[in-house]
Automatic annotation (TrEMBL), chains A, B:
Domain of life of the source: Bacteria
Alphabetical list of SUPFAM superfamilies matching this protein: lambda repressor-like DNA-binding domains (SSF47413), Periplasmic binding protein-like I (SSF53822)
Keyword hit for Transcription regulation: yes
Protein name: LacI family DNA-binding transcriptional regulator
All residue ranges annotated as the HTH lacI-type domain in the record: 3-57
Species: Streptomyces marokkonensis
Ribosomal protein as UniProt keyword: no
Gene Ontology molecular function, alphabetical: DNA binding
Keyword annotations: DNA-binding, Transcription, Transcription regulation
Amino acid sequence: MRVSLKDVAAHAGVSIKTVSNVVNNYQHVTPAMRERVQRSIDALGYRPNLAARHLRKGRTGIIALALPELGNPYFAELAASVIDAASGHDYIVLLDHTGGSREQELLVSQGFRARVIDGLILSPIELETEDLRDRAQEVPLVLLGERDYDLPYDHIAIDNVAAARAAVRHLIGLGRREVAFIGARRGRSEPAQLRVRGWREELTAAGLPADEGLVAATDGWGHADGARAMKHILDSGRRPDAVFAYNDPMAIGAMRVLHERGLRVPEDIAVVGFDDVIEGRFGAVTLTSVSPDKAAIGRLAVESVLARLNDQAPEPRRIWADYQLVERESTLGRPAGAGRGTA
Amino acid sequence: MRVSLKDVAAHAGVSIKTVSNVVNNYQHVTPAMRERVQRSIDALGYRPNLAARHLRKGRTGIIALALPELGNPYFAELAASVIDAASGHDYIVLLDHTGGSREQELLVSQGFRARVIDGLILSPIELETEDLRDRAQEVPLVLLGERDYDLPYDHIAIDNVAAARAAVRHLIGLGRREVAFIGARRGRSEPAQLRVRGWREELTAAGLPADEGLVAATDGWGHADGARAMKHILDSGRRPDAVFAYNDPMAIGAMRVLHERGLRVPEDIAVVGFDDVIEGRFGAVTLTSVSPDKAAIGRLAVESVLARLNDQAPEPRRIWADYQLVERESTLGRPAGAGRGTA
DNA sequence: TTCGAGTTTTACAACGTTATACATCCCGTT
DNA sequence: AACGGGATGTATAACGTTGTAAAACTCGAA
């Protein structure tokens, strides 16, 4: 069996607690004693049993990250950034995916999928405010993403309305007048509402009609959904001169359809995506996109969870991460601005 | 504080162990007793403390999955499939990424990054046989991916040589004679060696020269690396009529360069990738690719780890997963429909 | 020498669970 | 009626760690 503190203590001829003190770098240990115990530790190859430590301290050193789907590279990159951030605090990350379904999100938020965690970072899609309200407050929860909840949890996101407005402003600046929005979600909940709102506000501000006939609802968030939505718009006889998609995969799916129909990007239709995933930089037409600071989001999420875990956190707050509009071939034209903010 | 077995026992007026028996579905519990205890469990909202269970049983219910990088959608999709497979066995997945560096892979393989796990699924890139040989045998290890080790661990992969040969055979069948390979890795280790070997064998079998001048080494595995490699080949004055890339992102990066140089895919140069990631289906030219059965790989990996954990596993073995060559526009016999976008 | 105030080490009791060994109960058989 | 044996429930001791409180040192000053 494995070496325990008891074995080390016996080997060094001291009490168990003294060994524990050495292991944990307790202040009051004489250098001589530390040396002696350390020698036994090395000799026996002792390594702490984390299960016992967890039981005793009530901490596991694990935080869970629940994302809608890993297939979307934005979430994959976000996961990577969370893992790195956590690693810097000696935390490891348990990953789960919900498929963006309310049921799974509920299970995750109530801790039924993972019960060994110190904290949870959740990026909800369909979850409603009331779903989270009766959450048994077991471990700290930090929310990520576009949904807008009025709840006592930290929430990290970029300013989706402002970012969407920047994207639409950019398109208008190119002289486009009919800007379609791809990716409003069907059903009662409206996860895309902030981006749709930004689209609407900016058009209105520019004195253009926010034509709801140019808003295409979809069932999912992938390439295929974007393609279907684009087809739907074109088949309905509309011919917008610009498309703003909920995210990059949908934008790329839409561009594929435009290509199949012989429509040129950006000459006939300009396209802007959201998330700035790597694949947008290598298509035949590179994609202009809103680029959230993923590294910052991951870092802030981890820091928030850990702060709350250590009771160092003030009241729950909304934290804004930076973003940037990155222009590429799909909207060749003149420069646009960046945005940012703080809570 | 949280509800423990003790609380439930007091509430139900029985001993702690009886409650434990109910929780663990122990055989000999009368329905009446089970009912009564269950009522208390529900009333108090009891949920087992995994740290304690872990300490007692020596199991955590967690397996770790260590992948080179999540940014590559192949690995992201693989992670999703492992998470789903594990979930079916009441296991959860701790995710780590190594960046494909030997140092990180070593840390992971020796359990220094995560020590609360029952088993480890590792997809190594640079790790050498000897690095794994002196691994302290703490938890079961299952290997994934292209590397070929002669070690007592289960190894799950598709037959890379055969798959690569199928890809090259397909290109030769189109009448292509100069097939470049993109993505051999620099340095002493040769992670891409099996696919290069398949490339070489198939060309030779067809009576064509395996021209090493058409093999492009890269530093990484991403879009940008593929683009660089393609540029390198073209700049060296070579003009192959086909390209076989180590993976899809590299193939897509290469196609972008071909597009920039005014070379048509597939008319001038046919392209085949590897992994069949979703993004290959939505470019201006969709990508022919070797499609490994990711769901099977995830499932087999989880099953292998758990079998070994339960001592139900025979001697370590190599397990082959299925694959398929999916043909798309990048290797179409005749020119694709809508002309290429312009400008 | 004795005392006191710090400093260093120790003994012991948790943390919440499951395994072991034992006690009890309920039967059908003698 | 008493017995034996399987089915069911219980008390207790681990698992390996850390927090608490108390004991045992050290050292300078009375």
